[in-house]
Amino acid sequence: MSEGIQMPEGFLWGGAVAAHQLEGGWNEGGKGVSIADVMTAGAKGVARKVTDGVKDGEIYPNHWGNDFYHKYPEDIKLFAELGLKCFRTSIAWTRIFPNGDEDEPNEAGLKFYDDMFDECHKYGIEPVITLSHFEMPYHLVKEYGGWSNRKMIEFFDRFAEVCFKRYKDKVKYWMTFNEINNQTDWRDPHPLLQNSGLQLTKDDNWEEEMFQAAHYEFVASARAVQIAHKINPDFQVGAMIAMCPIYPLTSNPRDIMKAERAMQYRYYFGDVQALGYYPEWIEKYWARKGFNLDINNSDLATIKAGVVDYVGFSYYMSFATKAHDGEEHFDYDEHNDLVSNPYVEKSDWGWQIDPIGLRYSMNWMTTRWHKPLFIVENGFGAYDKVEADGSIHDPYRIQYFHDHILQMEKAVKEDGVKLIGYTPWGHIDLVSASTGEMKKRYGMIYVDEDDEGHGSLKRSKKDSFYWYQKVIKSNGKDL
Ligand code: BGP
């Protein structure tokens, strides 16, 4: 494997997780029920089921996660041994506001994060915090219809403000909504529900609902940016975009136009959050589709005033697309328009492995949004095997990280991209967001637990642990 390039001093090497995928303790410490808590397990290639409450006999993997809620002191100690400079996680909204619409926050929930952040600082690890990572109070979904309701802006901003005030001196890097653009596959209820809680309200015209919900999220996010800067001008508040560049399958101009529209559609979220305005094409699109959205001038002013400080993004894979015969408008429909790219390999879950796509994406975002970037997710979900002596050899994961980190380093060194840090996804094994499985593992730290939550929960180090440890120690040179 080739040698790496040393990163600039102070580069934030880290790891990333999300509250609902690892904490467990779903009904402890006064926590309310979140939408993640009512999602049953899926399986490889099968979407998880959203239930209308918790029923006996169903498996809800987010109820136990990997038990970080109880084990965080020993886990953070391991993260320190790995050498992490930062740790990305999220605050479970329901620990702070169990129902979402209360006036007063839940002290036990606030204290949990206080203690956990203190534990990080003990080892010089900087917490990087997402406010809403694929979850919201289930009560807000049932009673208000989630983000289809403008009232969510008020509830979210109250939650954000309480967190900004409480953790004013403990957290500097924030993100508002995880993968806010992972709603563009609006035919698939799963990402919609996770981001917006829309699933339980209507089942027709989801595309229009998606644009509406996203708009309310943009306003809430922009207001949160402004609130944050008032509380602490040093706060850095970012967007969080799921970046999968969409390539044209061929150089046929029709495919080029199709891919261009697909990129516009999937990434207008970044335009709004990083540039402060909706792109030109979108109003024409809404008019042609007959969408009638609740967007007013004061919202647009808020969006303009609440531009993010940086763009956090996840990168796992690239996509490819191709125009359909005879189609006139080149509209993007994520459910039907993606095709297989013959030039890249795929993971066991069909995710296209494309390290150069990471460098390409970093260039594309920099040219378009002119903001510092932060790679807050990147990783390889795979089956791992524990050997008789307890060791776990995961060369496939090391290869994936090696190839992606090298491209990341080239983007910084050779292309001038400004990059705050790199936090590989699920550096400790956790529940998969899409399938609810434990066996789709991303970790450098193995957790002894199966898909039903059985196992000793014992943590052990995979080969990738030692590999990443040396990458961090050499600041990216020893790859
Ligand atoms: C991103 C999510 C994460 C995480 C990751 C891996 O979309 O932000 O929460 O889960 O993907 O996905 P999965 O767990 O489905 O393999």
Automatic annotation (TrEMBL):
Keywords attached to this entry: Glycosidase, Hydrolase
Source species, domain of life: Bacteria
Keyword Hydrolase recorded: yes
GO biological process annotation, one example: carbohydrate catabolic process
Database matches in Pfam families: Glyco_hydro_1
Gene3D superfamilies: Glycosidases
Gene Ontology CC: one annotated term: cytosol
The EC number(s) this enzyme carries: 3.2.1.86
Keyword Hydrolase: yes
Family assignment from sequence similarity: Belongs to the glycosyl hydrolase 1 family.
PANTHER family the record matches: ARYL-PHOSPHO-BETA-D-GLUCOSIDASE BGLA (PTHR10353:SF85), GLYCOSYL HYDROLASE (PTHR10353)
Protein name, per record: 6-phospho-beta-glucosidase
Lineage start: Bacteria, Bacillati, Bacillota, Bacilli, Lactobacillales
